[in-house]
Amino acid sequence: MKQRVITAIVALILFIPIVLMGGIWMDVLVCAFAAVGISEIFIMKKQIIVSWDFILALLATLTMAVPDSFFKFLPAFLNKYDIFYIFVMLMLVRTVLSKNKVTFDDAGVYTLAALYIGTGFHFMAAIRNAHLGLAILGYVFAVVWSTDIAAYMVGRKIGKHKLWPVISPNKTWEGSIGAVICAVIIAAIYVTLVPTGRNNAMMIVLAFFLSIVGQMGDLVESAYKRFYGVKDSGKILPGHGGILDRFDSMLFVLPVVAFMGIL
């Protein structure tokens, strides 16, 4: 427990100032997170990090993670998704050049992971750097973190009915429902105190759905960790696991916030 607390304090001391500064610092931070995230996928798959496969997957991930303004130098007929697809094709070509030592399944995992991780972290910076973005990102953090904390505390206190025992045996329906209620309450308090430039009632209702989406992101990560037979996605954060362990819910919630036009 002491190690978890120390790691959390140190991480917040480093993380919060960068979030407050925003801009290029935030862009660099999310790209670093995305790079670590894709490396954790390779490690869980017991694949070699120093390889062409990792380089291609990393470049595909960063293509999705970097700010859209980075691609202004491209000619009009190209965009970031074209570049991403080029890396996907190269990953598929690797299945031929490696004589199927790198399989089609491997290429599929790397492609999906690059899209999932890169897009999620991209919107963390995109939301922060938008108009009133700090307030919106703070709202997202408040909803996700209150969901995680309440799910654990309520589930531990009164949880009796397993939510999805095959995937995550410690999660309960009571914890999940309590988490949604807590997220809505925290969101109501947050939007009352912090101007977001958005309709408060809409933001409170949105918290209900984002809490559910965040819990699904958590379950998705639990599913692939169980598939790969690992407890944590990585060890970069002592006592807390890896970057994917800490941002599993965010990677689902942030794109939803963006897609719903909250930016």
UniProtKB/TrEMBL annotation:
Q: How does it sit in the membrane?
A: Multi-pass membrane protein
Q: Does the keyword Membrane apply?
A: yes
Q: Which reaction does it catalyse?
A: a 1,2-diacyl-sn-glycero-3-phosphate + CTP + H(+) = a CDP-1,2-diacyl-sn-glycerol + diphosphate
**Which GO terms of the molecular function aspect are on file?**
phosphatidate cytidylyltransferase activity
Q: Where in the cell is it found?
A: Cell membrane
**Cellular component per GO?**
plasma membrane
User: Per the UniProt record, which EC number(s) apply here?
Assistant: 2.7.7.41
Any one biological process term the GO annotation gives? CDP-diacylglycerol biosynthetic process
The record lists the membrane-crossing segments as 6-36, 48-66, 78-97, 109-127, 133-154, 175-195, 201-220
Q: In which pathway does it act?
A: Phospholipid metabolism; CDP-diacylglycerol biosynthesis; CDP-diacylglycerol from sn-glycerol 3-phosphate: step 3/3; Lipid metabolism
Going by the entry's taxonomy, the superkingdom of the source organism is recorded as Bacteria
A Pfam family this chain is assigned to:
CTP_transf_1
Q: Does the keyword Translocase apply?
A: no
Keywords, A to Z, come to: Cell membrane, Lipid biosynthesis, Lipid metabolism, Membrane, Nucleotidyltransferase, Phospholipid biosynthesis, Phospholipid metabolism, Transferase, Transmembrane, Transmembrane helix
Q: Which family does it belong to?
A: Belongs to the CDS family.
Protein name stated in the entry? Phosphatidate cytidylyltransferase
